[in-house]
Structure formats: structure tokens, C-alpha cells
Amino acid sequence: MARPRTIDRENVLDCVEQLVHREGVAALTLDAVAREAGITKGGLQYCFGSKDDLMTALIDRWLSAFDASVARHIGPDAGIIDRARAYVLTISQIDDTTQARMAGMLVTLLQSPKYLQKIRAWYAGWFNGSDPDCREARQARTAIFAAEGAFFLRSLGFLEMDQEWWKTTFADFQRLILSDPCTP
Known about the structure:
Elements: H1 9-23, H2 30-37, H3 41-48, H4 51-72, H5 80-92, H6 96-109, H7 113-127, H8 135-155, H9 163-175
Helix pairs in contact: 1-2, 1-6, 2-3, 4-5, 4-7, 5-8, 5-9, 6-8, 8-9
């Protein structure tokens, strides 16, 4: 009896990203993903369920990878300033190819209320529990908004930034975050 073939979920998700990057979101079908990954459509459905489940897994992978990268730069009891610095640093280190791939997919995914809610909840997690009247929290929020703005402007091709400009811009964002105690 032949041993059942195991499907590598991460490889399938890589294939989804490659397919969309190469052919656009319109090409994203279960059949196309299965072909790209070299598996059967039935195997793909067994592994992920539906196209929605596949896309949810992709979003979860991005958010988890980002959160893990942030966590590598901070300790377990990090305050809002340390978290914001790590957030800005993590965005600054995303390479051009990953930026373009993520931005393109996110723009597409945000058209769905289900995916939009998931991403909104993730962003809200970055700001929940912080005192909006606290100077420290406002500085952290401003730096995160600035980093996100630069990421999307560059990723969507609205602003051409060479690597040196990118680097100095993110250094400026880091300087927005002071370590003063929380004062209104």
C-alpha cells in the first residue's frame, strides 16, 4: 500500500503568493493553486477546505510572521514605546519583493468584509489598552501610522523611494518615539 502524500501547507501558501504576483488575483482559483503547487484540487481542498479558508490561512501567516518578527526585537513585558519601535523596525526590514506581494494581496483581500474584519482586529490589537491621552501612547501611535503610510505608499507604487531614503525615513520614525514617562 502506498504511503499517502503529505501536503506542505507553507509551500501551498508560497504558491498562492507566486501565482497572484505573476498573474494577478483574477488567476486565483483552487484549480490554479493546485496546479501551481503540484497537487490535486481534492488534496488542496482536504488541506485547506475552501478558497476562503486558503486566503484566511495566508492572512494568518502574514500576521503571525510579522508579530514574530516584532517579538524578536522586544522582551515579554515590553511597554508601548518598545512595541512601537519594534513595529517600525520590522516594517523597515521588509524587502521590496515582500512589500509588493503583501500590498497587492492585502488590497485585494480588503474587498471582502470577512478579511477586512480580521485585519481590522489585528490592527486594533496594536492600540487597544493604550491611553489616548498619554504622550507616550500618542508617540507610539504616530510612529506606527507613519511607518504604515510609508509602507503602503512605496509598496503600491505611489512614491518611489530608494533604499537609502527608506532607511533614513524609518530612522526618523524611530526618533518620533521618545522614552519619556507617560505624561498628557
